[in-house]
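cron nightly-structures :: item 1 of 1
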Amino acid sequence: MLTLTRKIGQKILIGNGIEVVVREIRGRQVRLGITAPDGLPVFREELYEDLATANLRAQTTLDRNRAAELPEPGL
């Protein structure tokens, strides 16, 4: 993991078109501004994990429903 020290207003550039800027520092909290190309989703970690869990649950339900539609073996 790369660890950088930045001050308010300083930026980090990632690849082509992703920019992270330190907007504000209040005690132990840091506000970041993120610019990314259109179509590239940017999520907070906890929201990303919630989406991944919901997608896995939906896929499991879909797989069970498909399995229920299969004919019985030997028929």
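cron nightly-structures :: done
The chain has one domain: 11-69.
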